[in-house]
Amino acid sequence: METKKENLSSKNMLGIVTARRAIRNFLPKEVEQEKIDYILECVRLAPSAVNFQPWYFYIVKSKEAKAAIYQSYTIGNIKGDPMFIIACGDSTKSWKRKIDGKDFIDVDVTIATEHLVLAATEQGLGTCWLAHFNVEKLKELLEIPEHLTPIALLPIGYPQTELPKQPERKSVEEIYKVL
Ligand SMILES: Cc1cc2nc3c(=O)[nH]c(=O)nc-3n(C[C@H](O)[C@H](O)[C@H](O)COP(=O)(O)O)c2cc1C
User: Is the domain defined by 30-160 classed in CATH 3.20.20.10?
Assistant: First the structure.
């Protein structure tokens, strides 16, 4: 199915996923607490293996904690001083599949975090998944306990009005096969 204009609305899934973009430039405008609460409610309802919910989120607002983020994420492409969310996995809670020992921690935290990203988009906010950071440095600087592993950093705030162009995606035909 082609993305047709009449299928896009801020109230439907296609409209929200189309509006979502990696946002790295933010306006100097604080995110309202009601919006944070709404986003966290969407996060909380995410599914997880055996419903173990092996996630924990740090909401980073202070100058000191943001400095720790910038010391572990050194690319320097986040502009406008947004707040951040650190999405962590809890290895004491995650489900490990018996037959092969696979740990579903990343899968579960990623599902919850994408709920966060899409809820933020629906609320008119911008976010960006960030993975190019030094996990050990961040844990040390923020005194994150041993059993929690930061999986992604997400700046969150009001995007600069000009949204980046939608990057190319594979066509639908390229991504599936009927068996
Ligand atoms: C797991 C993951 C890690 C990413 N890490 C970074 C990152 O460290 N820095 C960055 O600027 N963008 C990062 N991105 C953003 C991607 O570059 C971006 O999502 C991709 O280019 C597609 O663009 P779009 O999100 O606007 O559709 C990451 C995205 C994902 C899903």
Answer: no
